[in-house]
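Hi R.,

Here's the chain you asked about this morning:
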Amino acid sequence: MKIEDEIQQKSFKSEGHKAQINILYTANFLSVKQTAVFKPFGITLPQFNVLRILRGQHPKPATVNLLMERMLDKTSNVSRIMDKLEAKGLATRKQCPNDRRSVDILITDAGLELLKKMDVAMEKQQIGLQNLTEQEAQELNRLLDKIRD
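And the predicted structure, written out as tokens:
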């Protein structure tokens, strides 16, 4: 459905303004869909993002700084997210043996197993991107990267 119909707005200041509104609206649309996939697993999008980063580092530990650098949402509170992941038994924090000021963060076996289950659920979930061809998805990625340059 066209953005004009979705938000019931007939005109925009410019095509650039329309694109900006469309990107924000679509990002929220995708976030809502993603949240629905995560809900049965008791995981939020920021928690999933941290687990995904930790899985990519596994078996090496990560640091809070590394997590903050790689987070999709740069305003996320990594310490609070880690508190919740530790409480769920999905990640652990230990003092770094080489640097007592640093903390090593690792994903647990339970965290790895949860991500496997979530990967399957996400593959089954259709969130709109299946409407794009591989070439269209590649072009969209190029354009989005260009916006951030």
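Strands lie at 91-95, 103-107.

Let me know if you need anything else.
M.
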